[in-house]
Amino acid sequence: xxxxxxxxxxxxxxxxxxxxxxxxxxxxxxxxxxxxxxxxxxxxxxxxxxxxxxxxxxxxxxxxxxxxxxxxxxxxxxxxxxxxxxxxxxxxxxxxxxxxxxxxxxxxxxxxxxxxxxxxxxxxxxxxxxxxxxxxxxxxxxxxxxxxxxxxxxxxxxxxxxxxxxxxxxxxxxxxxxxxxxxxxxxxxxxxxxxxxxxxxxxxxxxxxxxxxxxxxxxxxxxxxxxxxxx
Length: 231
Ligand code: CDP
Ligand code: CDP
Prior knowledge:
Blueprint: E1 6-11, H1 17-28, E2 31-34, H2 35-48, E3 52-53, E4 56-57, H3 59-65, E5 71-76, E6 81-86, E7 89-90, H4 98-107, H5 111-124, E8 130-134, H6 137-141, E9 147-152, H7 155-168, H8 175-191, E10 204-207, H9 213-230
Parallel strand pairs: 1-8, 1-9, 2-8, 9-10
Antiparallel strand pairs: 3-4, 5-6, 6-7
Helix pairs in contact: 1-9, 2-4, 2-5, 4-8, 7-8
The structure holds cytidine-5'-diphosphate (2 copies).
């Protein structure tokens, strides 16, 4: 059975969603879409144009500018996955800072932002053969996805994973600031009105607090093979 399926991976911040999604896309020859990168790119745009800061959010101005914000993915042969571009510029590194993480949940709560990005995500996935990770992929973007995963891990584990990543790329961050950001985003993403982070009824929950990357890949590969057989 070489039928292409749609795989939706949702869950809390730093649970390992993109790690799983990239591995699956590589193994299956599917397209990987990091939907969080799209929300991060819009956030970076808002920051660069001073539409958002510690004490203000010019949300109407951002909404007006939305049609001029072009987000695209360009496959990087050397890395083996697609990098995100904002108006033609590679922003893959700039969107991963703790500063962007501090504003992104506010930007992602704006319904107009979500509508534009969800439309684009559905277009990318219209021919199946896609693995997309985010917060609302199984609930809103692809409610008919062939396989839905909901990934969880304890907040401390997730903050440690993210802290390690940021330090490794040379960002000088404080562990407690990372933990606070993870917890604040969990709360904001789960409690917003438009497309909150919730487990889809038909999603399979995986708690990987005590799983290695290899262990989780083994378990998930098995679920994927079964979903392909069902399709
Ligand atoms: O990688 P990390 O778990 O830190 O987050 P991400 O996947 O890059 O997503 C960053 C933020 O974008 C999330 O905290 C959400 O506020 C937002 N997001 C969303 O609202 N819907 C999605 N489908 C993906 C991300
Ligand atoms: O995409 P998301 O924010 O959910 O997480 P990620 O960027 O895939 O993973 C965050 C970090 O946790 C990465 O450095 C992974 O290698 C690590 N990780 C881990 O150590 N053990 C797991 N079972 C899953 C992820």
